[in-house]
Specification:
single chain, 163 residues
């Protein structure tokens, strides 16, 4: 009788896949809310055939700051979550994977937020409202940095055997 060994996926890979899935779902949901909440530019039609923008505030800067703060906070939460829930898999690999997952989450946040934001209308009327596009630039690394910083900080201050 020959016994076949069953192929098993290591638990560390399962934990990493679950973390990535959770990160993508949470970042996408928060990104969708962020997209609907972003400030808009408002323009009124002028006699020359163009539109005059009424807003004096820089809505792109506001969007950038809120993007950076939200993905940074989510990265902080997932860094701590990864450290606390993945006690059996702690190490440099998990630290790096947490950063990669949060970078993917920031991309999902940006894409879904862009889909749910108000775009410029195809047939503008007297008044036009739309959300201008912006480039996150350096804010792409806020989420992975905060996740890895939170994970490393938790490892640094954790006292073994004390609950």
């Amino acid at each position: 009788m020959v016994s076949k060994s069953k192929f098993r996926i290591p638990r560390s890979i399962g934990f990493g896949a679950g973390l990535l899935a959770l990160v993508l779902v949470v970042y996408s949901v928060v990104g969708a809310v962020w997209g609907m909440w972003r400030p808009t530019l408002t323009g009124r039609e002028v006699e020359d055939g163009g539109y005059a923008i009424e807003n004096v505030a820089d809505v792109q800067f506001s969007s950038f700051i809120v993007f950076a703060v939200l993905v940074g906070f989510l990265g902080l939460c997932f860094g701590l979550f990864s450290y606390m829930r993945g006690a059996a898999f702690r190490g440099v690999g998990q630290l790096l994977w947490c950063g990669v997952a949060c970078l993917a989450g920031a991309a999902a946040f940006y894409v879904v937020g862009g889909v749910t934001a108000h775009s410029a209308p195809a047939d503008p009327g007297q008044v036009v409202q739309f959300v201008p596009k912006f480039a996150p630039g350096i804010a792409w690394v806020v989420s992975p940095f905060m996740a890895m910083f939170a994970y490393w900080s938790a490892a640094f201050v954790d006292v073994p055997g004390v609950d």
